[in-house]
Amino acid sequence: MKKTGIIFGKFYPIHMGHVDFIQKASGLIDELYVVVCSDNTRDKDLFKKSKMKKMPTIKDRLNFVESIFKYQNNIKIIHLAEDGIPFYPNGWKLWSERVFETLLKNNIKVDVIFSNEPQDVENYKNNFLTLPNSEKVFSKNLKIQTIDINRDNFPISATEVRNSPYHNWDFMPKPVQEFFAVKVAIIGTPHSGKTTLVHKLSNCYNTNFVEDYKKKYSQKNNLKNLEEKDFQHIAQKHQEKISKSIKNSNKLIFIDTEFCSLQANLLELDKKRK
Ligand code: NAD
Does any ligand 1 atom lie closer than 6 A to the CB of residue 157? Predict the structure, then answer.
């Protein structure tokens, strides 16, 4: 018989402790559902109290988890909206009912709940197994399994990541790092030393830089004067290079000129034409 497990979490944001937990749980079961929970009011409030520079939306949080586990077919990601339910731990009954409806709708039957919160073990059993028609979603022998309650493998919490994302950089999986990486654009008039500054800064901060693609494009194609069609190509290529470079950056990247400068160049060209 196929065994199905489930893990609930806010994953706000997902960190290496979560990844390790999901990875280990997925090895103990045939199919694992990771339920990413959201509550608009709570999530906004957590963001306000945090030091995160931008708020990962529920879509972002789902994307992070999906992209981390995209090559593991036995890990499935679903969303649970908790809006309207009193916050944990005061809403167990309503929350269990919402979980039940969602799992029933998705035709999911659960044998094992994985949680690293020992205080929740009894609550899961008491609330899930006493629901009317509970057997439609939860196995009679429902097991609640903990894996690393002391966070021995990755001593980190999502609160710590939210409160100090850059200090906890190494605990962030790649897609989360990419989200939080800061883009610093160096702008200035021609020949003011932007390129040199970008190289120096990227060395000092041990991170990537993105070259001025307009300069490279002009040199490569031996062009003295650019035309409108060139700008579209340059902007697109420049953006591709930024997206590639940010994937492996160390907290920030330095960009030699940016789109406002490019747009200003184009407007300048338009003016000359008129
Ligand atoms: P979370 O994202 O903080 O953690 C998810 C899981 O990962 C948990 O089991 C946690 O113990 C484990 N984990 C965290 N850090 C770890 C580390 N470093 N190493 C190993 N494991 C680690 O999520 P959460 O806050 O536990 O999520 C529970 C969700 O269930 C919330 O959305 C909550 O609202 C909901 N809930 C609500 C009620 C209610 O009364 N309203 C009741 C129960 C559950």
Answer: yes
Say if residue 261's pLDDT is above 90: no
- For ligand 1, say whether the CB of 117 is within 6 Å of any of its atoms: yes
Q: Which residue has the tokens 């990771």?
A: 34
Tell me: the pLDDT tens digits for 202-248? 999 999 999 988 888 888 888 888 888 888 888 889 999 999 999 99
The pTM of this model reads: 0.92
- Say yes or no: CB of residue 160 within 6 Å of ligand 1: no
Q: Which domains does the chain have, with CATH numbers?
A: 4-166 (3.40.50.620), 181-273 (3.40.50.300)
Residue nearest to atom 9 of ligand 1 (CA): 115
The SS3 assignment for 138 reads strand
- As a whole number of angstroms, the distance between CA 166 and CA 76 comes to 29
Pocket test for ligand 1, best of 32, 36, 88, 96 (most atoms within 8 A of CB): 88
The DSSP-derived string for 145-183 is: E-S-TT--SS---HHHHHH-TTTTGGGS-HHHHHHHPEE
Find tokens 């970008």 and name the residue.
198
24 lines ligand 1 (CB under 6 A): no
For ligand 1, is residue 21 a contact (CB within 6 Å)?
yes
Report how far apart, in Å, the C-alpha atoms of 111 and of each of 71, 80, 101, 175 are: 23, 19, 17, 30
